[in-house]
What does this fold into?
Amino acid sequence: MDIDDVKISRKKPIFSVGAGLLKYLKMYQREAKLPISYYDLLHFQETVPVMDKYGNDTFWETPLYPPHLQDQLYEGLKVVYAVLKASGNTRIVQHKIIDRIEYCAFGNTKPFRIRIVNRLNDVYDYFYIKQADASRIYGLELEEILSPNQVNYVYDRDTLVEEHIVGIPGDVFSKGRIENPDYNQTRIAKEFVKFNERCIISLLGDMRAYNFVMQITPDFDDFQFRIRAIDFDQQFYEGNPKVYMPQFFKENFPYVKLCMEHLNDRTVLQYQQEERSSIVHRVRSERHRIKDLRDASQTQQLSTAENIMQLREGYGGYYNNDNYYRCKSMTDIVELNVKNVIRQVQL
It folds into this structure.
């Protein structure tokens, strides 16, 4: 593994949802009618910075709404939460209140983060409302199909609502917890190798440490680790192959260092093969869904012709496979990645 200075297009355009993708979302029950939209939440008068407990800027802001608009938004957000969590059954929000709304102008989709609290026991949850972006939706779907993780989201016209993914932010974990003596360092390194492999195959880009979380599960004799992506803004848009390889981001050096210290070439290859085998099992069980997703992408713009050409040439060289040079879209490259994985596992 190595570290490089990977460049990211900071102003990736938002791609609207095409007719094929909309049909797919309806087929797999991702489309819903929501009482409020992303743009309804933009009607704030001003914002106040949100600071963490150490006084540092979190890059989130608290929007301030007129009282009459705030009441209307809060009621609508409770219904949105019911749609996301319980197919619209509003009984689950009977004792819940919207505690706060936060806004981030830093990300591509400029998300809103909503905190909802149960008045009976103070248990809280988060969910996100974002601008609908077709490439992001494809990223969520590929995460559902190709990874061991499930994602929960709903779409309505220009609005995307996503469930909160629980975990320790990757940058926080790497700075203060990665060297915990109770943690098996080899298991953490193993998980990073597998995560890196999934990103390469699914073309999930920009997985810097602050764009994924570490989930830690106590086992009967140790801890299990899983890295989960939380940001899908850079799903197969960029042309640089290294964008889809988390090992090359300097923010991920603590994880790369762990791999170099605790793994050798043979074990890295073993863990890569294990992840490829798992992907093959998932593809076989979801073969109809992944075919429908591919078909939905055929008429959908997801990147630029220049980026597609650069990436297919980069992957052709990376895998020493001339078949990549015939790919005409980003989803063609993903499909070829998956087919290659299937062939490798069958050998």
About this structure: Strands lie at 46-51, 57-64, 96-103, 112-118, 124-131, 153-156, 159-163, 168-169, 212-218, 223-229. The chain has a mean pLDDT of 92. The longest strand covers residues 57-64. The chain has two domains: 19-163, 168-346.
